[in-house]
Specification:
This protein is an alpha+beta fold. It is built from 5 helices and 9 strands, in the order ααββαααβββββββ.
């Protein structure tokens, strides 16, 4: 069956869900999750010769190359504008794919998180296959791509992540699979990439959302949503 062409905001799957009503989390799928992340055994970590774009962005953020995120301790304020695409709200679409995704990327300690949004998904190469690459997002879930940089080896599938928003919604999840690599030299030695899927909808009433890593070294990032 041919892939469905990419559709504008009002035609996105999550627009069918009433505000504040999140769909059920999908059942765990067998096999690899797709091109975004490769399944690995929890007791092993893969080493690759090349860093993915997500890891490159995370490393740049960690050394101050890009000033976005929640870097100040005790503060959840984010830097840069973030206006998620939600049903009933129209925002001017950006044209630079790197800048568009960076606007939705936050970093704190070992945690670098990019909130999925139609504004930068539509700028990815081969936009006709966007729904195939990000199925959970188009099903109406809040999805976050994560790069975790740690000095010691950790198993992301055994860690819990908490998502909160301004309407007092609180949901938790764990990654089902992850892709890991080891980095030589100074700084963090282990890098893991994975996707978090939350049974949560960013409605028009939400003015901020916050992601907390409930694990060693922690990590808290937030996105302020101008209305």
């Amino acid at each position: 069956m041919p892939a469905r062409p990419f559709r504008p905001c009002e035609d996105l799957a999550f627009a069918r869900f009433p505000a504040g009503k999140a769909p059920r989390k999908p059942a765990r799928r067998a096999g690899p999750a797709g091109p975004r992340v490769a399944a690995v055994k929890e007791s092993k970590i893969r080493s690759r010769p090349l860093l993915s774009p997500a890891v490159v962005l995370a490393l740049a953020l960690s050394v101050g190359g890009l000033a976005v995120g929640c870097a100040q301790a005790g503060s959840f304020k984010s830097k840069g504008a973030t206006a998620p695409t939600v049903s009933g709200v129209v925002t001017p679409p950006p044209t630079d794919p790197v800048a568009a995704k960076t606007a939705f990327t936050r970093q704190d300690g070992p945690l670098t998180a990019s909130l999925l949004d139609a504004s930068w998904i539509r700028l990815e190469p081969d936009s006709a296959k966007a729904e195939e690459r990000h199925p959970e997002y188009f099903q109406g879930f809040t999805v976050v791509e994560v790069v975790l940089q740690t000095q010691n080896f950790v198993q992301p599938t055994k860690e819990t992540y908490l998502l909160e928003d301004s309407t007092a919604q609180r949901v938790t999840t764990k990654p089902e699979v992850y892709q890991g690599e080891t980095i030589r030299g100074f700084g963090p030695k282990h890098v893991a990439e994975f996707t978090l899927v939350f049974p949560h909808v960013i409605s028009k009433d939400v003015t901020w959302i916050r992601l907390t890593r409930l694990g060693a070294e922690g990590g808290v990032v937030s996105w302020e949503i101008p209305r």
